[in-house]
Amino acid sequence: MTAAGSTESELVAALLDGKHRALARVITKIENRSPGYRDIVSRLHAHTGHADVIGVTGSPGAGKSTLVDKLASTYRDRGETVGVIAVDPSSPYTGGAVLGDRIRMASNVGDMDVFFRSMSARGTLGGLSTATADAIKALDAFGKDKVIIETVGAGQNEVDIVRTADTVSVLVQPGSGDDVQMLKAGILEIGDVFVVNKADMDGAERTVAELEEMIHMRRNPAKNLNTGHHDPVDDDEELAAVAADDADGGETWEPSVVETVATTGDGVEELIDTLAAHAEWLVDTGEIETRARNRYAAEIRQLVRGDTAALLEEVIDEAGGIEALADRVLARETDPYSVTDELVGPLRECVREELDDG
Asked: What is the pTM of this model?
């Protein structure tokens, strides 16, 4: 075993032994994509699959950081350990987290059983990078009971969080008609729990009503719509149809709307109970395995695409660089399809030979 390999083994062993310094070092390696990080994540994989991973997303100003702080504090009061990853906007200069040095998790300062890390989104779709998914694995393998992911909150792109979280909480603040319209654009589809935070503000009741109506419409899009071909289905028939679906094994989760005031902690206990109910539903229905399978499939595809793209960049550089190739196309010496065949052809042949031999 090389010296580097020995160091990685020692780091993994220390992390699994509950050493917080080792956990911090591993996540730093993961975020920086330092040499050996892939081997570390591979070694940790067998020790994952135990933590509840909770995503918290929503528009800026909805109070995500304050709510996450209160969630972590309440989980600790219940005797559970917590890991928090706050995915912040990337600095255009360093690629690091712009908000990484701000004071956060104020209620949990000094509590070693709450591990907080601010990570850079690095410009990836939905504010989540592959590094974030790997950091979740490190926290899971470390033994954290709850892993909370707080995202940037960039609208529809937040669907990426569904790849890393078992339960997704979407925060909306009262009177935010634009936020509710944003939900219709797509983020509604990923929410397992909707939280109207700052529920002591004017307009909270209306926002709750709007969300509940949207959830109802998602469950039954044809409800109250007269298409001209059918009579509207009455409530009794609708409920009977839903019950029949559930009896046939098609049980679905009905998203809840919870009101909270994160600054005071009001509603946080109810939110945690709702998150726990969803976690229980995932296990009881087998949905937890389905989501994990889909998540791993997406991760494998992403990693394969990334590694393949890096390999092809080497091929392009060997061919003189993309600018030289573009100049040849500009001069009508060749065309984009022919250039692509020249670059990918040898790689394609190697892969096919490997498959034939296999």
From this structure: 0.82
